[in-house]
Amino acid sequence: MLSKLPLITKQDLFEMLSSRFSVEKRLSQIPNPALLHDGVKAAKRIADAIKNREKITLVGDYDVDGISSTAIMVDFFRQIPYPLEALIPNRFHDGYGVNPSVLQRIDADVIITVDNGISAHAAADICIERGIDLIITDHHTPGDELPDAYAIVDPKLSVCNYPFKEICGAEVAWLLLGLLKKELQLSIDMRQFLDILAIAIIADIMPLIDINRTLVQEGLKLLSITNRPASIIIRDFLNKSSLSSEDIAFQIAPRINSAGRLEDASIALDFFTAQDTNSAYKQFELLGQLNNLRKETEAQTTKEAIASVQEEDPIIVVAGDGWHEGVVGIAASRLVDKFEKPAIVLSINENEAKGSARSIGNVSIYELIKANEHLLSKFGGHKMAAGLGLESKNIDTFREAINKSAKDINPEDFLPLDNLLGIFETDEIDQELLEILEQFEPYGEANARPTFFLHEAEVVSIKLMGADKSHSRIEVRQYPHQRKTVELIAFRRVFEMPHNKKLSCSYTITKNEFNGKITPQLLLQKVYIADH
């Protein structure tokens, strides 16, 4: 029973959060990148290419992780200095990653991939035919067979001894550059890239534990002081004295992502690699415009997707003609939030359907998709998110098959991981509480921001906010005897006064900074219709 959740104090909260971490790692304790399988081999080959003035081409990916990986590589090579051709495939014209169509545009001696390539079998074969050494750096789960590449650097390889596996593509690229720095005996400070690296780790929803926690902590600090033009623009835009992982996840990552989703990722790459603030500002403005367009497109797609859902299915599979390929992943996330089930959203283009999957709880959407790969033309990803393609005539068969596979999963695995800690006295929400919460930043995957529960709080008033009145400010009183009320902010949700004027919900507490004044802000997460 949710109403039976424990009443917790500040001291309880401190102890709960402290128990999440064993020992804090320092930057100096990050495991040696030489432990990455093929890491040293790849670094030596790139070093030889540089010494011999060979042509090197980099192939990235169009999401935040892939763009960040590419930006870090471009910046590093700029400092050597050595000419590096960097190419991020266009989602609509090229498809994903290094592939035969992309290779038609490349003339190189060495090709390096970042955040892609672990399933690039056809591209690897073409590289062998053309005498190109292909170096794959990726972090996605390998299939049963690996591409025939010169070197494959991926912590998820069964033969890889790197002790922490849950790193993003940008981290793999950064670690490889550390090895390259050693091979070339350069004096480049690898810490200078941590601002971009932190953005990638947060945006790719990596668990914020172990080395990821350390890198994000240090990266957010650097983001606040570095002279990198892109980072100057980011902190001017956020206008805060200290930056959080949520600032990046909700305000910066969607903008970076919008370029690859709607137009071309080169816009975001040019932002990250801009050499003056004027250029960076122009690109950031473009990203803002694309992000607004993305919101409109996504809202329409989500609305149509909701109407197509077969609610009896444990795994939602919906498809639509002409749905924008760039927003189907976000639409899938919206369906997961609404129906509390894994969701796959597919965009149909004539005979082909491409789409994205998002999961919930402990359900591995990757394993479910893999179990039905005979119906697909391609797929890839990890436990909580994946991409896939198939012939449109197979959509119904695939929907039936994946739902049949899901019948073997423990029903408890489908339960959302709400991580409700307990009931907190709203009178105790103050600056001291903010200081306790701040000690355990950054919050994110595997270190969720503490979520508290309000049981049948009295709703005093509801006001709608924003230019389009799409956000709600809900004033509540936790107990009838209290004089003090608190405000809950519900973004992208319009609330009406409940008939009994009561509200049971979960919420998180963040720091609100306005006109130099810092106050606690309560963000509504989930409304519970009845106690259960």
Written overview of the protein:
The chain has about 525 residues and is of the alpha/beta class. The chain folds into 3 domains: about 1-15 and about 420-525, OB fold (Dihydrolipoamide Acetyltransferase, E2P) (Beta Barrel); about 30-285, Alpha-Beta Complex (inorganic pyrophosphatase (n-terminal core)); about 310-415, Roll (Diaminopimelate Epimerase, Chain A, domain 1). Helix content is about 35%, strand content about 20%. It has 16 helices and 17 strands. The protein has a 5-stranded mixed beta barrel with strand order 13-14-15-17-16. Strands 3-2-4-5-6 form a 5-stranded parallel beta sheet, sandwiched between helices. Strand 4, helix 5 and strand 5 form a beta-alpha-beta unit. The longest helix is centred in the middle third of the chain and has 32 residues, at about 275-310. The chain is globular. The termini are close together. About 40% of the residues are buried.
Q: What is the name of the CATH topology of the largest domain?
A: inorganic pyrophosphatase (n-terminal core)
Secondary-structure class = alpha/beta
Percent of residues in beta strands: 15-25%
Between the first and last Cα atoms, what is the distance in angstroms?
Answer: 5 Å
CATH architecture of the largest domain: Alpha-Beta Complex
Query: What number of structural domains do the residues give?
Result: 3
Rg, Å, rounded: 24 Å
Q: Main β-sheet: number of strands, strand sense, barrel status?
A: 5 strands, mixed, barrel
CATH uppermost class of the largest domain: Alpha Beta
Shape descriptor: globular
Number of strands: 17
- Which spans have pLDDT < 50 for at least 5 consecutive residues? none
Mean pLDDT: 93
Assembly status: single chain
**Helical content (DSSP H or I, runs of 4+):** 25-40%
Count the DSSP helices. 16
Give the neighbour order of strands across the main sheet: 13-14-15-17-16
